[in-house]
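Newbie here. four chains, one complex. Structure please?
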Amino acid sequence: MRHLQDYLFFKTIVEAGSIRKAAESLTITSTALNRRILAIEEDIGVELFERLPKGVRLSSAGEIFLHHVREQLTDIERVKSQIADLSGERRGHVRIACSQALLTAFLPAQISIYREKHPGVTFSVQKKDRKEAEESLRNLSSDIALVFEPESLADFQILSVSKQQTYAIMSTEHPLAGRPQLKLSDCLQYTLALPSSDYGIRRILNSKANRSAQSLSPAIESDSFEFLRYLALHKQYITFQISIGLPEDLSQLNMTAVPLNTKDVPYGMLYLGQRSGRTLPVAAAKFAQQLVNELQE
Amino acid sequence: MRHLQDYLFFKTIVEAGSIRKAAESLTITSTALNRRILAIEEDIGVELFERLPKGVRLSSAGEIFLHHVREQLTDIERVKSQIADLSGERRGHVRIACSQALLTAFLPAQISIYREKHPGVTFSVQKKDRKEAEESLRNLSSDIALVFEPESLADFQILSVSKQQTYAIMSTEHPLAGRPQLKLSDCLQYTLALPSSDYGIRRILNSKANRSAQSLSPAIESDSFEFLRYLALHKQYITFQISIGLPEDLSQLNMTAVPLNTKDVPYGMLYLGQRSGRTLPVAAAKFAQQLVNELQE
DNA sequence: AAATAGTGATGCAAAATTTGCACTGCTCTG
DNA sequence: CAGAGCAGTGCAAATTTTGCATCACTATTT
């Protein structure tokens, strides 16, 4: 859309912090870009930026305008997507913010299923922690978010909630492998490789440990679930994952996942949501619907 | 706003039903206008209009686009108004849809009060019946609506509700003048001049008459309250009005208003509302707030 | 203290886009 | 069947946007 170019330019400048830098990434001259901003400012009658020696910074009027610009840019996407859907062929782009656990198996599978029906739809998936995911919904940089144990839920419109059981992951050689079910205390006798404490799984385990006055002392902490998994394979450590985050090929890797007793370690909650009050583009709305159906099973 | 010109052009064409007619009112050539539409259509990839021999008509894609355009045009007004409010001086335009009864005394007084504080704010007031008022909120041609006994309340976000007592209006020479209070049956013995049946007051009176199996047979019906009032003055008829709609200068006109007993004819409800989910421009929001305060007394 | 490198703004000419005129082809109306 | 009203199009003029060179300013580095 031609008229929205100014909006995009403006947004890019805000993100770049300088007109010249923004101009570079927009493949346009800084002077042309500068003048477009000046023109907008004249239109509105207020300066959108403070001019600093190091670049530009939003004025308070600019903040208001930025908010409007973000809404516009996403709104026109929705409109285009609705219009495209009239002609039968679904097109568009779905932007997903999600917890790390979803990246391994669930989302790849779901996206693949969706794209078989609608190859015109593209996806971007960003791993975000709980805070970041909610923020990205708020500032419209994501359409939907899948968050395990979310934080505030402000502006978060819940589309689906599903209970997630925690599993212990270990090598098939591990003494505990083969048990039908475990308690957390069973695991504490072995060496643990845990996600860092800003992850939902860790919070679940922590709270159980605190309640039973046990101490959760991991030998290894990491923010990469994949790393933890490989560690558990080679070093006979135990790590944990929620059910939806279990890789499909564990057995091929000589690993196994044993569920933790839910009376011992309670279910965690996986939330699917969008920004409240927003109408999603068709593609995103339909994909969200697919996830809702899938999560209900 | 330069970029929104296309939107305004588009909207004008829709309303005019023809590119040439729209071009005329926009003081631009039909050919230039035509090409701007073609450009938009190329941008989106779909035809927005069906081309008919008599002009153009919206396609279904155009309908979606129109909806977006309307939201845009009002949204940018809100943004401008919010930005202007930063600099202290309030500017903007408030569009009000209201029932006829409000035009006589209430709204003129309220607008006058508001404009003393904020002379930069302009107003447009449109008399609408209950259906029309709600529709004008929905399609964003009004910011706020004041409706007596509204109909559906769909998409209608209620800002305030106030009870309105019904008054009988008559000449000071009338036999019933001077009574402290009346019952509907008292009035039925005299000749009535009533608003047409799509007005809220008439509905209130009708429902009472039906319940008590009385018959409401007006000698005169009109959709002009002013006409009815003058009629009542000169011909000794009785007409009715709700409290907020009573003119301030009745006594100077040798007329008087006598309240109807509320146990006989119940209160009617006056609703102040906006479209649900919408953030009003500063000027409109503040004016609405003033009305809410006023109506609470 | 001076040089340097970074920022946004501006005058001016070239490039690109938009506009208006004249005209086409179409359909419905009288 | 002629006429009026409609949208679309080729082309040249008018207007707007762009890019280059350059200015004025500031913070950092030498």
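Moderator note: Residues 28-29, 31-32, 35-36, 52-54 of chain A lie near DNA strand D (CB under 10 Å from a C1'). The domain at 166-266 of chain A is CATH 3.40.190.290 (D-Maltodextrin-Binding Protein; domain 2). Thread marked as resolved.
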